[in-house]
């Protein structure tokens, strides 16, 4: 089985791919999230793993747009506890480090820690582990990485500080993507991710939320994203949790009829 991820061994995406698909899965690493989405849409891989939101840094908005544009299906979700660690080539101390490189989401999660070291510049890079590997391969001094302890071990770096994320309980929600499938097999879904492109009417969002709340569906996430060909109009990505699939389906029908276009990205099992 081929699994597409952004990143290399030691990255958090790599960890999720192993946790979900086992050690024997063939994990194919890409440099960008877009390449992952494209690979899954072309069925060059069976599944893709994509981070979608983090409990400290918030949503990764461009990834919502990718799921939509490449017409992908959300098959499942996975919540990974994230512990970030500050690391560098052996034999250096924090005072030697002038810049730290990592994935932008990782930097956001550790911003507070670096406030005490104003001499260290924070620089966006591809993914957490690839910085660790580059530091090792090119024997780069004075540069630190933020990555998992697994990455420090694989790439032989020294830990300068552990668990440096702003809040110790830190989670990233990942989604497992595949090409559209209508057959859910044996899965009994109790969660769905949908996009509603609403008519621009006064009070319409409040009315939609009332319909959802009165139906007893649990709205676990709502995120607006711009409709790119209609400036200042927005679509809403909504996650819904439910006990009764029929109630959920009935609400979807009402939303389609009264509120606007609905695109269902996936129906799956809540893993929170
Ligand atoms: O760089 C990595 O190791 C990743 O897997 C990327 C990523 C992200 O996209 O949010 C995954 C989890 C953490 O939140 C930080 C970075």
UniProtKB/TrEMBL annotation:
Enzyme class at the top of the EC tree: lyase
Q: Name one GO molecular function term.
A: prephenate dehydratase activity
Gene Ontology CC annotations of this record: cytoplasm
Q: Give the InterPro entries listed for this entry.
A: ACT-like_dom_sf, ACT_dom, Preph_deHydtase
Any Pfam family from its record, for instance, is: PDT
Its name, as the record gives it, is: prephenate dehydratase
Reaction(s) catalysed by this chain, per the record, are: prephenate + H(+) = 3-phenylpyruvate + CO2 + H2O
> Keyword set for this entry?
Amino-acid biosynthesis, Aromatic amino acid biosynthesis, Lyase, Phenylalanine biosynthesis
Q: What's a single GO BP term from this record?
A: L-phenylalanine biosynthetic process
Q: Where is the Prephenate dehydratase domain?
A: 2-179
The annotated pathway is: Amino-acid biosynthesis; L-phenylalanine biosynthesis; phenylpyruvate from prephenate: step 1/1
Q: Does the keyword Amino-acid biosynthesis apply?
A: yes
Has the keyword NADP been applied to this entry? no
E.C. designation(s): 4.2.1.51
Query: What are the transmembrane regions?
Result: none
Q: Which residues form the ACT domain?
A: 193-269
Q: Which PROSITE patterns match?
A: ACT, PREPHENATE_DEHYDR_3
